[in-house]
Amino acid sequence: MITSPLRDAPPESDGLTDYDREHVKLYLRLLDAAADGAVWQEVAAVLFGLDAAQEPERAKRVYEAHLARARWMSATGYRFLAREEQH
């Protein structure tokens, strides 16, 4: 259940955060969109509700920050999730 709203950037942490846990589905959608070659402006509109024509810098910053965290989750963060499920 998502209890925290989307931020302009995920919290910076070397470990898994509550924000990460709550937004795993968003991260997966971002990774899928990037793999499919989706245009970042469309992704920002669909996933974040941001209009890149109205707020181009913010929309790109939000998109890039969350995509970077999604990539971290796919490379490193998933291990924290796996450990939590084992306990």
Overview of the structural elements:
- With 87 residues, this protein is mostly helical.
- The protein has one domain.
- Helices cover 66% and strands 0% of the residues.
- It is built from 4 helices and no strands.
- It has helices at residues 18-22, 24-35, 40-48, 56-86.
- It comes from Jiella pacifica.
Question: What is the fold's blueprint, element by element?
Answer:
Blueprint (H helix, E strand, L loop, with lengths): L17 H5 L1 H12 L4 H9 L7 H31 L1
Helix pairs in contact: 2-4, 3-4
Keywords for this structure?
87 residues, mainly alpha, 66% helix, elongated, RovC-like_DNA-bd
Describe what is shown at a glance:
66% of the residues lie in helices and 0% in strands. The protein has 87 residues and is mostly helical.
- What is the tally of beta strands? 0
Q: Which range best describes the helical content: under 10%, 10-25%, 25-40%, 40-55%, 55-70% or over 70%? A: 55-70%
Quote the average pLDDT. 89
Question: What distance lies between the first and last C-alpha atoms, to the nearest angstrom?
Answer: 20 Å
For the record, the count of structural domains works out to 1
